[in-house]
Structure formats: C-alpha cells, structure tokens
C-alpha cells in the first residue's frame, strides 16, 4: 500500500507490512521550509493509523539540517521513544554526520537515576580543612593587598577617590543617624529604668546617671553602633563587591589597569573609620538623653543634677577609649565586608551567603576585640 504526499520540495511515501509495521520513504530536502508541514502531516498520519513499528527510509533524502532532525525526533517521540519500535535505514554519510552532531541516538533514551553516594566523615573533614586553608590563604593575600593600598594612598593622597569616599561617609554615617539615635535612646532609657529599681531602694537615684553614662561611653555605645553599622554597611559592602565579582566587573577593572583593592576597598575603609567614631559619640549622647528622661520624670531628679553627675563620672580617657574602640570596630567591619565580597564564587545565592557571613563574622570580631580591649584596660589602669 502506498500513500504519496507532496510537501514543496519534500515527498514521502508510506507502506505497510503484513504485521502492521510502517515504512516511511522520504525524498528530497528535510529543512526549515518543510519541517512544520511534515510534522503536522505525519502526526495526523500516525494518529489515524498507529503502527506497530516505524521504519524511516532516508535513502532518497538529499539534504537534512537540524529542522529535519527535529522531524525525525518528533517521529521517534510519537513511537514512545522505544528503540525496538523506531528505526532509521539507508541514511547517507552526510545525514549520518548531522545526526551524530545532534546526538540523535540519545534522544528519548531513559537515563537511570543513581543515588548520590554521601561522603564519609573523614572525607568531609578533609574537604573542610582544605577549604579553610584556602580561605585563610586568600585572607592573608587580601590583607596584604589592603595594607599596600593604604600605604600607597598615604604616600599619594591624590590617588584616593574623593567622591566615593564622601558617598560612603554619607551612606555609613549620615543615613545611619536615625536608627542609631533611636536604638541608643531606647537603650539608655531601659538601662536607667532597670537600674533605678534597685538604686531607688538605697536612695541612690543620682547614680543612675553614672551607670548609664559610663556603661554607654565605655562599652555599649561602641558595641551597639558597630553592630548596627555591620548590619547596614558591612552587608552592603559585601553585596556590592560580590555582585561586581559575579558580573565580572572586578576582572574588567583589573584588565583596565585599576587595582581593585585600591579602587573599591580603600575609600570604604577611610570613610568608615572616620565616620563611625563620631556616630558612636552621637549614640552616647542619645543614650544619656534617654537616661535623663527617666531621671527627670520618674526619679525626681533635676536636669542640672543629672547632667552634673554625668560630667562628674566621665573622664576624657573614657570618651577617648570609646572613640578608639569605634575606629577599630569600623576597620574590622569594612575589611570583613569587602573580603567576603571578593570571596564570592557563583551566582546570586553566593552573594547572599557572603552578605550573611560578613555580618556574622563582623559581630563575632567586634565582641572578640571588645573583650581584648577590656583585658587591656583592666591591666593598664
């Protein structure tokens, strides 16, 4: 039985065997102009007379491209992709070459799922050690690059990018004033209220001013300000540089002859180290103001008495000590944030991980360095 069809420059004939097997004889060009029509006609043919098996005879095919291969792939798919129900015969060398390039034989083949073997404890431990060594090596290299860049900028002040430095100062300092002021005010208010519960029993209400001012200026003011800056600016530094790393902007800077560390990191370090200590002083003032509110409205203290006790308690050394710690915290926050940004590998998920790691690492180093400062102060004075 024969059923000739004409599709522009491509023809095909259909024949059936006694067992219900179909043979499709294709002639002419199997290319883009004929592919859509062939797929539509052959789908209708196979739907009306589903064969037991399908053999495609390509002996008279003069040309086949990827669109022609798509026709064959659709036929193979209609036969459920079973190798014993679909066959290609009499293909020329050029046709075989095109099908080989497109890896036609693998189409429709079921790939068995294999369970991924989990690594044992020693393998994971070794991988973790090697990863930590690699990160440590990168950290030392980055720290060396930062030190060299800072020395270069100190020797050549005009090389510092002023616009970026002032922009970072605005983002880190000015934009953080509302949240730092609010948290510090509430913290001072809470400290004054809780301490007054105990001191009021002994008639020592006036010492609420001493407790709030001394604890904020020496410890809580620098720490709280640094944690806020780490959450705002440290994460922003990591996200900015990490995104540039993923989009290969860092490589572009290096290709154009710019030092990425000097170009991106140094302005952020200079801006943060300058701004954060003054942001800490602002935090201290707002915390003392919060304690003043409690002292005046709940402890029957006068404003003059509260302020006088605060000035009497604090010394220049206390203010300088908090100022110094804030500068160190700012340096740690900026270096860690930029380091995590440069360590990003991959895509958007890696940027998020670097941002989280920058905040967590910064807070840990802030607490650790504050502990070291406390030990130094204990044995110094």
What this model shows, in words?
This protein has helices spanning 32-48, 66-78, 93-101, 121-155, 162-172, 177-199, 207-246, 249-255, 260-298, 303-313, 316-342, 348-380; strands at 5-7, 10-16, 22-30, 54-64, 86-89. It has 381 residues and is an alpha/beta fold. It folds into two domains: 5-106, STAS domain (Transcription Regulator spoIIAA); 147-380, no CATH class. It has a five-stranded mixed sheet with strand order 1-2-3-4-5. β2 (10-16) and β3 (22-30) form a beta hairpin. α4 crosses α9, α6 runs antiparallel to α7 (207-246) and α6 (177-199) packs parallel to α9 (260-298). The radius of gyration is 37 Å and the shape is elongated. The N and C termini lie far apart (109 Å).
Based on the model shown, name its key terms:
Transcription Regulator spoIIAA; 2 domains; 12 helices; alpha/beta; 381 residues; 5-stranded mixed β-sheet; disordered N terminus
The biggest sheet amounts to:
5 strands, mixed
**Widest beta sheet: strand line-up:** 1-2-3-4-5
Strand content: 5-15%
Euclidean distance between termini CA atoms: 109 Å
Helical content stands at: 55-70%
Rounded average pLDDT: 84
Number of helices, where a helix is a run of at least 4 consecutive DSSP H or I residues: 12
**Element order: H for helix, E for strand:** EEEHEHEHHHHHHHHHH
Number of domains: 2
Shape: elongated
Computed Rg? 37 Å
Low-confidence stretches are 1-7
Number of beta strands: 5
Helix- and strand-based class? alpha/beta
């Amino acid at each position: 039985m024969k059923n000739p069809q004409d599709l522009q420059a491509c023809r095909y004939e259909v024949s059936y065997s006694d067992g219900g097997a179909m043979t499709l004889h294709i002639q002419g060009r199997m290319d883009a102009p004929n592919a859509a029509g062939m797929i539509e006609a052959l789908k209708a043919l196979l739907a009306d007379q589903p064969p037991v098996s399908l053999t495609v005879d390509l002996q008279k095919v003069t040309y086949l491209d990827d669109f022609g291969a798509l026709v064959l792939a659709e036929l193979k798919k209609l036969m459920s992709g079973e190798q014993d129900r679909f066959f290609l015969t009499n293909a020329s060398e050029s046709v075989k070459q095109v099908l080989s390039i497109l890896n036609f034989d693998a189409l429709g083949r079921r790939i068995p799922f294999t369970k991924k073997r989990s690594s044992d404890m020693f393998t994971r431990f070794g991988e973790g050690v090697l990863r930590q060594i690699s990160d440590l090596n990168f950290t030392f290299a980055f720290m060396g690059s930062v030190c060299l860049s800072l020395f270069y900028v100190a020797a050549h002040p005009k090389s510092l990018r002023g616009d970026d430095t002032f922009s970072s100062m605005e983002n880190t300092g000015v934009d953080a004033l509302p949240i730092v002021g609010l948290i510090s005010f509430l913290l001072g208010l809470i400290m004054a209220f809780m301490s007054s519960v105990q001191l009021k029993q002994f008639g020592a209400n006036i010492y609420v001013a001493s407790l709030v001012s001394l604890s904020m200026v020496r410890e809580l003011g620098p720490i709280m300000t640094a944690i806020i800056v780490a959450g705002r600016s440290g994460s922003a530094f990591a996200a900015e540089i990490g995104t540039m790393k993923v989009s290969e902007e860092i490589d572009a800077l290096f290709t154009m002859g710019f030092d990425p560390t000097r170009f991106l990191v140094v302005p952020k370090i200079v801006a943060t180290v300058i701004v954060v200590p003054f942001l800490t002083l602002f935090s201290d003032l707002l915390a003392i103001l919060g304690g003043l509110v409690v002292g005046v409205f709940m402890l029957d203290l006068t404003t003059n008495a509260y302020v006088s006790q605060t000035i009497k308690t604090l010394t220049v050394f206390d203010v300088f000590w908090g100022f110094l710690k804030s500068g160190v915290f700012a340096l740690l926050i900026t270096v860690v944030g930029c380091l995590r940004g440069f360590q990003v590998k991959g895509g958007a998920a890696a940027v998020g991980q670097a941002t989280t790691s920058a905040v967590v690492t910064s807070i840990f180093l802030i607490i650790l360095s504050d502990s070291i400062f406390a030990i130094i102060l204990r044995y110094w004075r």
